[in-house]
Amino acid sequence: MTTRSKEDYLKNIYHIQEEGGKVNTGSLASALSISPASVSEMVNKLSKEGLIDNKPYHGFELTSGGRKISLNLIRKHRLLEVFLQEHLQYEWDQVHEEAEKLEHVCSDMFINKLEEYLGFPKFDPHGDPIPDKELNLAPTHFKLLQNAEPGKEYVIAKVKDSSIEILQYLTKIGIKLNSKITLTEKIDFDGSVVIIAEGRKNLLSKIMAEQLFVAG
């Protein structure tokens, strides 16, 4: 039986892998805000259960079984986020923490019915693709705002870091998912960008620009 703790480990390993990072004791301890010793103990358990491949000095990665569990949990999480925002009027900076609590207690049957009730959404409130019933992800063709061409109009398609602080700041300056923006300038000196959103000009730092994916 997969416990909540094991599910959280597998989900975080998946996220680190998807972002191109090396999954090791240090990166996982940082993601989960726990000690490296605790990570090592759980990694050994997951390896013995065939959920991860642990390669000394090379980190570890999910097996097909571990990937299936992590994607199923991500599916639950993202569908719950959609429900919370669309039907309970949660803001996009509030849905993540609530879904973190609910994802572990919802059955597959409930989630399948919830998906149908919601109209089979493809993306969550932050622009991340939602795995379908077979755990397939919809293809995305987004690009980082920093890599976009100035002088053109784009649509905000995804926010990479869904931390409360970043989402609240974006809301403050009039940016949300599917917002139309115009990229007017890219400043090479410090990597910041100038955009127009809701008729207002805003200067976004390099850190902020690296969090936004656009389409168009």
Helix content: 40-55%
Q: Could you state the order of secondary-structure elements as H and E? A: HHHEEHHHEEHEEEHE
Measured by DSSP, the beta-strand proportion falls in 15-25%
| CATH-defined fold name of the largest domain | SH3 type barrels
Strand order of the largest sheet: 3-8-4-5-6-7
- CATH class division of the largest domain: Mainly Beta
Number of domains: 3
Distance between the termini: 44 Å
**Total beta-strand segments:** 8
| C-alpha-based Rg, rounded | 19 Å
Tell me what the CATH architecture of the largest domain is. Roll
Name of the CATH superfamily of the largest domain: Ferrous iron transport protein A (FeoA)
Structural class: alpha+beta
- Mean pLDDT over the full residue set: 92
Query: Which term fits the overall shape?
Result: globular
Low-confidence stretches: none
How many helix segments? 8
The biggest sheet, with number of strands, parallel, antiparallel or mixed sense and barrel status, is: 6 strands, antiparallel
Question: Can I get a quick summary?
Answer:
The protein has helices at 4-18, 25-32, 36-48, 64-87, 95-102, 108-118, 164-172, 206-209, and strands spanning 52-55, 59-62, 143-144, 152-159, 180-186, 193-197, 200-204, 212-215.
Description:
With 216 residues, the chain is an alpha+beta fold. It has three domains: 6-62, Orthogonal Bundle (Arc Repressor Mutant, subunit A), CATH 1.10.10.10; 71-138, Orthogonal Bundle (Arc Repressor Mutant, subunit A), CATH 1.10.10; 143-215, Ferrous iron transport protein A (FeoA) (SH3 type barrels), CATH 2.30.30. Helices cover 43% and strands 18% of the residues. It is built from eight helices and eight strands. The strands form two sheets. Strands 3-8-4-5-6-7 form a six-stranded antiparallel beta sheet. Strands 1-2 form a two-stranded antiparallel sheet. Helix 1 (4-18) crosses helix 4 (64-87) and helix 4 crosses helix 5 (95-102). The longest helix has 24 residues, at 64-87. The chain is globular and about 55 Å long. The model has no long low-confidence stretch (mean pLDDT 92).
